[in-house]
Design brief:
Length: 245
């Protein structure tokens, strides 16, 4: 009798433990694999992540998006200009709007189209070369506001097996970013020569999109790695079958 009670209790406990182990945190909304509206479900699930992305979830290594801090530094050389951008902080990412989503659970390809109305970016830059025919050399702080940002992220997933469970991981993330417009203010160029500096800021602002397109590969690369790390922090924490039951 006592033994049966023990069996009953332990199976209850094991059952409880198992359920607890399977529990997903509140911020994850799962989408059934055969949901006829898988796309709609996944968009809602991303939308519901917004408040958590805003603050970050340290227990799951999900960083805060406000500001979005990129710790890497990025060096690029384009059109005779060397540029190193470091210590980038961006504000406004959490105002994202998911415009579209394409999902293929067989090939594990995900394409997300996201709009962000406005981003304010602060960074440290080092420039050496010519920008729009003006010789430029120096370093300092850079502030830029970009408006009407639209991004398309292509995520290639892969299933890895760990401890007998299948986990999704994004092995490759490609990002294309377009911006509508904006302005930039660079400080400290030309050893503080205010006349040359205001001239350069003027030229750059009148040709903001050209200026930004020079920087875009750098921006895309850094954002792609943020996308990949954040995405992986979320999907690698839970077995695939749990995320897509
Ligand atoms: C899928 O979503 C569309 C548009 O939101 C809706 O019209 C349709 O009824 C949904 N279908 C199902 C099966 O939920
Ligand atoms: C990085 O940027 C932040 C915010 O703009 C600033 O507070 C910090 O001092 C910078 N750090 C370095 C090492 O430049
Ligand atoms: C896999 O199992 C090992 C040993 O039991 C454990 O240390 C590790 O955290 C497990 N990994 C995952 C992803 O659950
Ligand atoms: C960016 O926008 C903020 C207000 O949102 C403003 O204070 C700042 O001067 C702007 N910077 C540039 C470079 O336009």
């Amino acid at each position: 009798m006592a033994f049966r009670k023990f069996l009953f209790l332990s199976s209850l406990l094991i059952g409880l433990v198992r359920v607890r182990g399977k529990e997903l945190p509140d911020f994850i909304r799962t989408c059934a694999r055969d949901d006829p509206n898988l796309t709609t479900c996944m968009i809602s699930s991303v939308e519901e992540l917004r408040p958590y992305l805003l603050k970050g979830v340290p227990e799951y290594n999900i960083p805060s998006l406000e500001p979005l801090v990129m710790t890497d530094f990025f060096a690029d050389e384009a059109a005779g200009m060397k540029i190193v951008v470091s210590n980038v902080s961006a504000w406004g990412c959490s105002d994202f709007f998911v415009r579209g989503l394409e999902t293929n659970l067989d090939t594990l390809q995900f394409i997300v189209d996201v709009d962000i109305p406005k981003l304010r970016i602060e960074a440290h830059y080092h420039l050496d070369g010519k920008l729009l025919l003006v010789p430029v050399k120096g370093d300092g702080n850079l502030e830029t506001n970009v408006t009407d940002v639209s991004a398309r992220a292509e995520l290639q997933g892969e299933i890895i097996e760990q401890n007998g469970s299948k986990f999704l991981t994004y092995s490759q993330v490609k990002l294309r970013v377009h911006v509508g417009g904006g302005s930039v203010r660079m400080e400290n160029l030309f050893n503080g020569d205010k006349v040359l500096l205001s001239m350069l800021n003027d030229v750059v602002n009148r040709n903001f999109k050209v200026f930004l397109s020079e920087l875009m590969p750098v921006i895309e690369k850094s954002l792609a790695s943020v996308f990949q790390n954040t995405g992986n922090a979320i999907v690698e924490a839970f077995p695939f079958d749990q995320l897509f039951p």
